[in-house]
């Protein structure tokens, strides 16, 4: 069973930085690199929206337009962990951030579609004060 646990959220002033981490348990060391990993966020009253995705290890990264140039997604296969480095944070970035994973059997593409991800973490709150 695949489980995801996020950490690193908190309160930060506008212009500041945070790094979110997500530990993925379940996949074997040989399978984890094949999983695509993503970050989504959901603010109160809004739908959960795509933030960033990393395809299999050594693959490509994708970002929502609203975070390009400010956020960076990375993964460490030795630690079964995916990160989201967030910089130049703005109040509009305030949300619950969710880590998501999808196995190689889901194919490729549509990395911004939440329904393509079968595994989710519980979320971590990020609040950016003005």
Which helices and strands, and how do they pair?
Elements: E1 3-7, E2 10-13, E3 18-25, E4 36-42, E5 49-54, E6 61-63, E7 71-76, E8 81-86, E9 95-102, E10 119-120, E11 124-129
Parallel strand pairs: 2-11
Antiparallel strand pairs: 1-3, 3-8, 4-5, 4-9, 5-6, 7-8, 9-10, 9-11
Give a structural overview.
The protein is mostly beta strands. The protein is 0% helix and 47% strand. It has no helices and 11 strands. The strands form 2 sheets. Strands 2, 4, 5, 6, 9, 10 and 11 form a 7-stranded mixed β-sheet that branches. Strand 5 (49-54) and strand 6 (61-63) form a beta hairpin. The chain is globular. The model has no long low-confidence stretch (mean pLDDT 96).
pLDDT average, as an integer?
96
Number of strands: 11
Radius of gyration: 14 Å
Helix-strand pattern: EEEEEEEEEEE
> What ranges have pLDDT less than 50 throughout 5 or more consecutive residues?
none
What distance separates the N and C termini?
A: 40 Å
Number of helices: 0
Structural class assignment: mainly beta
| Shape descriptor | globular
Largest sheet: 7 strands, mixed
Q: How much beta, percentage-wise?
A: over 45%
Helix content: under 10%
Brief write-up:
This protein has 130 residues and is mostly beta strands.
Provide the descriptors you would attach to this structure in a database record.
mainly beta, 130 residues, single chain, globular, 0% helix, 11 strands, 47% strand, 7-stranded mixed sheet
């Amino acid at each position: 069973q695949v489980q995801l646990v996020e950490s690193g959220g908190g309160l930060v002033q506008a212009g500041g930085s945070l790094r979110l981490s997500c530990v993925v348990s379940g996949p074997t060391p040989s399978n984890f690199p094949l999983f695509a990993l993503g970050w989504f966020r959901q603010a109160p009253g809004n739908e959960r929206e795509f933030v960033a995705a990393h395809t299999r290890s050594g693959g490509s990264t994708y970002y929502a337009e609203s975070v390009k140039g400010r956020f960076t997604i990375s993964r460490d296969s030795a630690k079964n962990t995916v990160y989201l480095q967030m910089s130049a944070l703005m109040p509009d970035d305030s949300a619950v951030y969710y880590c998501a994973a999808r196995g190689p059997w889901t194919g490729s593409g549509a990395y911004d579609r939440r329904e393509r991800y079968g595994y989710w973490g519980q979320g971590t709150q990020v609040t950016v004060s003005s």
